[in-house]
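Q: Given only this backbone (146 positions), what sequence would you predict?
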């Protein structure tokens, strides 16, 4: 009886662990955004929604099944300053073009350490090995000013 349910519970623990890590990364991005905006009295809702959209693209939620990708987003200097953590862009009036991307090296690294190429699937030991070898920094897509 218990043996049949163990893989399901184990899988749920692994899923929960990855989701918790991703939520922590997203919270860190939100805190950085609030710190950069600081004492600004009015928040532009369209900018805020764009910031949420960019944050959703930065966090790798599909890292195990997905390949490399790249997408461009146009935004204000304020959004670029928050996302890139570059306060010098805060008052830039020109539209900035951001590229959010996941290179092949990161995809290969994640596939190797998370075991997506094996029959064993995602396991707690794979997640631990992934994190021990610097995988936390690969749970976020890269972003650059184009």
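A: Predicted residues:
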């Amino acid at each position: 009886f218990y043996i049949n349910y163990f893989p399901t519970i184990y899988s749920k623990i692994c899923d929960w662990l990855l989701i918790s890590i991703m939520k922590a990364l997203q919270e860190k991005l939100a805190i950085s955004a609030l710190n950069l905006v600081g004492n600004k009295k009015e928040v532009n809702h369209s900018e805020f929604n764009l910031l949420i959209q960019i944050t959703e693209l930065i966090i790798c939620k599909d890292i195990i099944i997905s390949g490399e990708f790249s997408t461009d987003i146009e935004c204000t200097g304020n959004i670029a300053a928050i996302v890139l953590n570059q306060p010098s862009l805060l008052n830039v009036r020109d539209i900035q073009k951001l590229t959010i991307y996941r290179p092949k090296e990161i995809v290969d690294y994640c596939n190797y350490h998370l075991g997506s190429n094996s029959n064993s699937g995602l396991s707690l030991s794979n997640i631990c090995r992934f994190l021990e070898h610097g995988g936390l920094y690969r749970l976020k897509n890269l972003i650059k000013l184009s």
